[in-house]
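Recall that a protein's primary structure is simply its ordered list of amino acids. Everything else, from secondary elements to tertiary packing, is in principle encoded there. The following example makes that idea concrete.
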Amino acid sequence: PTASMKREGTWPEIELYGPGYTETWKSLYDRFGLDFESSLDPGQPDEHWERYLYFNAGFFYYKCPHEFGQLFTEFATEIRDSPPKELICQSLDPWLDQVVLPLVIHKLGGGRNLEPGLRLDRDLTCHWRVLPLLYAREADNVVALLESICEPNKIKKVLKQYEPIKRMIYQGKGQKVREMFDRDDLPRKEQQMRNRIKAAKLWMR
């Protein structure tokens, strides 16, 4: 199993005098009897978020959804109801799924940068949460495909009822967002893109 590698280091939020990344994540692996060292990316420096197995849950998969779901529920419930003391500074709302996901994937023998996950991220799918971000950062062929499948009148009549689709796709606001960013030189953090779009009064969801 694996999950989307389109991600940012949103959890944990490290406090100045609190546990660091290693201490925080190791406490969770220890809780479930998992090998922590084999989950690390040795190509990343210690205490950098990408060293630790982490996903934002854009997509994930396993050969058996029932087995995956059962283990996910077990881990999530345990962490929610009885978190390790190392999580004292951390919020689990709304991050619980992102805390649990790497543990479940590791337990089931998966990891990062695995096929077909990389192809799902790159060639086969586009996972998006809000349309302005899709227009800001996705490839030209993604935007072209989106706009072409939204063009038939019978589809347009339905989709136009949703204000963000109406404004972004049918009224051209998405192309205005697109003009604000260079896909070859995007801001490193999603929040920077969000802020710029909001400042232009083009943010909607």
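Residues 79 and 85 are 11 Å apart (CA to CA). The chain has a mean pLDDT of 94.
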